[in-house]
Amino acid sequence: MGEDIALIIPAYNEVETIGEVIEVAQESNLFNEIVVVSDGSEDGTVKRALDYGVKTIALPKNLGKGAAMTIGMKNTLAEVIVFLDADLVNLREKHIKKLLAPIIARRADMSCGLFSGGRENTDFAQRLTPYLTGQRALRREIIDSYEELRDSKFGAELYLTKLVIEKELKVEKVLLEGLTHRMKEEKRGFIIGIISRIKMYWEVFKYFKKNNLSYNSISSTTK
């Protein structure tokens, strides 16, 4: 492809699925480097990642997804960055290629991958809030504030979308057919999962308010 491409996988207690994500990424031979950042995981996430021989950074406590993504970026010099969530199910090489295609062809500065035809629950969630997708490819050069990304916590994807608005960047939405992920309620139990989901949306709401963002302006970037 001519450019160095790095995959960054932020992970928090994803021992059940992270191995599959890493394995598919390795078998694709699309990446010069794979970096896993365990955000204070307390299960076997770190060991599972190390079993695959990828660069693995174990943060001593949970700092939030934005911090994990920032640390991942600071541990690679690749010009093109791909972010994939560690809880993906049914990931295939075709999904990664589709996510990368707009960036490699220079049709876009960022691509956003949306679930399609995986499971109705996760498909619906991404139709409702497409700007929260964790599946993205982008050029490193568009990130001009590691500090803001680091401090965004659950608003990490919103920070990336805010960049699109502020810099008038080209974004391409790609549908990732058959891809889904484990929902918080499945991973942590119904009650704790619901609490985690509420916490996530609260962080998103605070980010909206802090940065004077509107739903329409954010949503328009991923149509």
Q: How would you describe this structure to a colleague?
A:
Helix 1 (18-28) links the parallel strand 1 (5-11) and strand 2 (33-39). The strands form two sheets. The protein has a seven-stranded mixed β-sheet with strand order 3-2-1-4-7-6-8, sandwiched between helices. The longest helix is centred in the last third of the chain and has 21 residues, at 190-210. The protein contains ten helices and nine strands. The model has no long low-confidence stretch (mean pLDDT 84). It has helices at residues 18-28, 45-51, 65-74, 93-104, 120-128, 146-151, 156-167, 184-188, 190-210, 215-219, and strands spanning 5-11, 33-39, 55-59, 80-83, 88-89, 110-116, 136-139, 171-177, 180-181. The protein is α/β, with parallel strands linked by helices and 223 residues long. The two termini are 28 Å apart. It is 44% helix and 20% strand.
Unreliable spans: none
Query: Can you list the strand order of the major beta sheet?
Result: 3-2-1-4-7-6-8
Number of helices: 10
- Overall pLDDT confidence: 84
Q: What proportion of the residues form beta strands (DSSP E)?
A: 15-25%
Strand/helix succession? EHEHEHEEHEHEHHEEHHH
N-end to C-end Cα span:
28 Å
Biggest beta-sheet profile: 7 strands, mixed
Work out the helicity level: 40-55%
Number of strands: 9
Spatial extent as radius of gyration? 16 Å
Question: Shape from CA axes?
Answer: globular
Overall structural class, as computed from helix and strand content, comes to alpha/beta
Query: Which oligomerization state do the chains in this entry correspond to?
Result: single chain
